[in-house]
Amino acid sequence: MVNHKIIAKNLNLWYGNSPCLKNINISIPENAVTAIMGPSGCGKSTLLRVFNRLNDLIDGTRITGEVLLDEQDIYKDMKDVFSLRKKVGMVFQKVNPFPKTIFENVVYGLKIHGWKDKAKIEKQVQKSIIDVGLWDEVKDCLHKNAFSLSGGQQQRLCIARAIAIEPEVVLFDEPCSSLDPISTAKIEQLMEELKEKYTIIIVTHNLQQAARVSDYTAFMLLGELIEFSETNQMFTTPKDKRTENYLTGKFG
Amino acid sequence: MRKQKELIGLLALRVSILFAVISFLAILIFISIKGFKVLNIGFLLEVPKDGMTKGGIFPAIIGTLYLSIGTVIFALPLGVLSAIYLIEYAKHKGLTKTIRIGVDALAGVPSVVFGLFGLAVFVKLFNFGVSILSGALTLGIMILPVIIKASEEAILAVPKEFKEASFAVGATKWQTITKIVFPTALPGIITGTILGIGRAAGETAPILFTAVTFYQRLLPHSILDEVMALPYHIYALMTEGTASEYQVPIAYGTAVVLLGLVMSINFIAILIRIRGRRAKKW
């Protein structure tokens, strides 16, 4: 039986007066990779940003329905948005390390959440960097600026920053769109490893990527969730005509 | 015909830039020639002597330094905090617009008006007297718009991706501002502040009634003492006293020092800006 980490029920979202998400119902399985795909502007990034309430930063965002994380409504039951974001980390489309050292980037979340013990902090930083497969590349230059790394390394550093605070869910918003194929392959492999510990949701408009990395796939179109099923099933026998048209490249 | 127009246009551009460069060089050379005679180490390190006809300008240099430092201590935190509030917190569009217009208007107020304001408020009302404190506060208010504008621009230039990344690990707005936004914006803020100091150091009118004295043999002991200052020293040498044949060269010498000081301040600002741009990789 699949355990569902995040459940959205009758979710609607507006930016001002324009509807962005229309009656979304989706259950995200735990310890699996769920891909959300669809053409640009279909609301997939917006849906992703519902799960850590990053949409709250945009004035005029309005939301109805329920979003449950482990049966807790993240909009009503959780005491604040900061403890939600501690549980739900995020990696962004634009590779965005802070203009600080490699070490400071990873330690940032720990400091935010009040970690004080130096030895523990160092251990956790090391563990996070090892987990993203970056340790051998950066262990001698932890105090160099993060921008001295290559794009792919920077993105893995951003993943280390996200997992350092031991979230339960990690959101990836088109994490490879600015990376070369080799870096992309590394990130994809990393997701495969990370799903043992974390529930992973990745937004992508790259069909092959969705097929390669995900266990489940959601297909969105114009703010609606058209289809959601196991990735194998969706790519071989899509139920909806629109999904089939998208997968066969009739539009994109 | 089209080619001729292009030539004429280019000529106009060249003449304009030439005029600007020549004016700047002319000031530099003219002041230097006139002031060069009196310039030596003693001029920088001695107090004025014999009714301002001999000696140096040491107290005026120190006074300008004190006033500048006081100005920064007052205006920098106030300006930065205002900018942070305007950009990150002020929700009400109409209110922020009004505040911005107010700040712009403040930037356009003639400096002598700041002087009168300082006299009425700091010297008289708060009873700080003619002092470093009154002068620094007056100059601080004068350069506040410069610092607010520079800080606002620097804060706006911080990529929103940095802020999002900070929020995404669970940081509060205040943590994000103090740990990410402010440090990232700091080089820009410092550059703006230094340019503001350059302006404050060279002004006469705001300190005329609030801080300066014509002659002081001893250096000030507290922030409630009055001081000598370079720009006012020039003004005083040219308008007061009787021995103009001795005073005028000293005035030009003082002008060289003031010019050198202000130009070095601006140069430091430019250096910091260049370094900041080079370090900026996003």
Task: Please give the order of strands in the largest beta sheet of chain B.
Answer: 1-2
How does CATH name the architecture of chain A? 3-Layer(aba) Sandwich
The share of residues in extended strands of chain A comes to 25-35%
Helical content class of chain B: over 70%
Please state the second-level CATH architecture of chain B.
Orthogonal Bundle
* Major sheet description of chain A: 6 strands, mixed
How far do the termini of chain B sit from each other? 46 Å
Report the top-level CATH class of chain A: Alpha Beta
* SSE ordering of chain A: EEEHEEHEHHHHEHEHEEHH
CATH class of chain B: Mainly Alpha
Assign the structural class of chain A, choosing from mainly alpha, mainly beta, alpha/beta, alpha+beta, or little secondary structure: alpha/beta
Share in helix of chain A: 25-40%
Total helical segments of chain A: 10
The coarse silhouette of chain A is globular
Radius of gyration of chain B equals 23 Å
Structure characteristics:
heterodimer, A: 252 residues, Rossmann fold, globular, B: 282 residues, mainly alpha, MetI-like fold, two-stranded antiparallel ribbon, 11 helices
Please give a structural write-up.
The complex is a heterodimer of chains A (252) and B (282). In chain A, strand 4 (61-69) and strand 5 form a beta hairpin. Chain A has a six-stranded mixed sheet, with helices on both faces. Chain A has a four-stranded antiparallel sheet with strand order 2-1-4-5, with helices on one face. Chain A contains ten helices and ten strands. Chain A has a single domain, classed as Rossmann fold (3-Layer(aba) Sandwich), CATH 3.40.50.300. Chain A is α/β, with parallel strands linked by helices and 252 residues long. The model of chain A has no long low-confidence stretch (mean pLDDT 93). Chain B contains eleven helices and two strands; from the N terminus they run ααββααααααααα. Chain B has helices at residues 2-36, 41-45, 58-89, 93-108, 111-125, 132-156, 160-168, 173-202, 205-208, 230-239, 244-279, and strands at residues 48-49, 54-55. In chain B, helix 1 (2-36) packs across helix 11, helix 7 packs antiparallel against helix 8 (173-202) and helix 8 packs antiparallel against helix 11. The N and C termini of chain B lie far apart (46 Å). Chains A and B meet through helix 2, helix 3 and helix 6 of A and helix 7 and helix 8 of B.
